[in-house]
User: Which sequence fits this backbone?
């Protein structure tokens, strides 16, 4: 509630569901979905399943540099970079 009190254009969420149980995680993801029409939401996460569920666009970063950016479906189903593919499929990371 405090994050949206000042009516920002962008919300930054750093691991918003870290250490939460599946029920609480689902509620947070529902909230993210409800807020997406009003705010740009940037989520930093290592949870690939969650990223695939809640995002429209995805950026994969490695060592502080963007390796690949695009529509979430493309990043997860047909990444252009081998490094991205290795990460989203769990081969490293």
Assistant:
């Amino acid at each position: 509630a405090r994050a949206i009190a000042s009516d920002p254009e962008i919300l930054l969420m750093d691991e918003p569901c870290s250490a939460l149980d599946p029920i609480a995680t689902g509620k947070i993801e529902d909230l993210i979905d409800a807020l997406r029409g009003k705010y740009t939401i940037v989520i930093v996460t290592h949870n690939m399943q969650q990223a695939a569920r809640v995002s429209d666009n995805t950026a994969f970063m490695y060592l502080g540099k963007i390796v690949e950016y695009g529509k979430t479906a493309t990043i997860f189903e047909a990444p252009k970079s081998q490094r991205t593919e290795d990460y989203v499929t769990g081969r490293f990371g």
In short: The helical segments are 2-5, 22-35, 48-54, 72-77, 82-88.
